[in-house]
Task: structure prediction
Amino acid sequence: MSAILVYLGTHDNKLDKSAYEIASYAVALGEKTGLPVTGLVLGNAENIDQIGQYGLSKVMQHNAGFYKDFDATLYAKAVHEAAKQVSAEYVLLSHDYTGKSIAPFLSVYMKAGLVTTAVALPEINGDECIVKRNVFSGKALAYVKIKTPVKIIALLPNAYGKTKKEATVQVEQVSLSVDESVRKVKVKEVKKVIGKVSLTEADIVVSAGRGLKGPENWKMIEELAELLGAATACSRPVADAGWRPHHEHVGQTGTAIRPNLYIAIGISGAIQHLAGVNGSKVIVVINTDPEAPFFKAADYGIVGDAFQVVPKLIESYKQWKSQHA
Result:
């Protein structure tokens, strides 16, 4: 075994935001181990060339139509076949929805050790590979050894960052011994939210909780999010009450996110909520209660009424934007 294979996720025929980070991670691991790095794209992607900005110069693509609808078994089989083609010693994925679904199957198929939620490059001592990972919803770190010949690592999104390194990408169309007969899930309908920033892809997320007092008050949250180019989110009680759709619920029981900026408005900061957002690079909390637990996790806090603070933020941002247009 003598290579690194990195799976590059796609959505709507474009590389995911996480693909650029896992590519940077793979290139750095290649420099550390001296192993060649190959990217893998399943299905169509119009912007593969852009991965060269992060130093990845070789990409395998299996552009079959049956990848249009995601199926973990099908995708894992394909990644396995690609790993065999390049004799991969390391298989790298992002710990996003797709990666989390694929990785366990892949580990079984390849009889390979798997570490998820990795947050740094592994330490390599001979045949041992020691991976630093988040545990207990980000409250602690663990160091896990992988001793198997093939090692699978799933990188926590936003944990490593992107490193600019120019390279010219060579895309090789390949044939993989996989077909749709292994599919376990039949997709009957896909409903898409058009015109909004994807919650898992967003650099900025504006979130609100019961402090907003009712769904009729979300207009100012949406306005602030639109101004910032952000996605909107909410706490679980708000989703359970039907004030906001469940796909906006962030937290341990909802969607886990790691944006560059998370603005929490009228959310007290229960442990379950914090577990899903505490990987955010910068957290801003707005709450009337100065004892709200969320303030302990915040980088910046504003003690005040959301109905006074948020309109002032909107107005201030509009003024700043007009002056810097």
Notes: DSSP finds eight helices and 17 strands in the chain. The two ends are 54 Å apart (CA to CA).
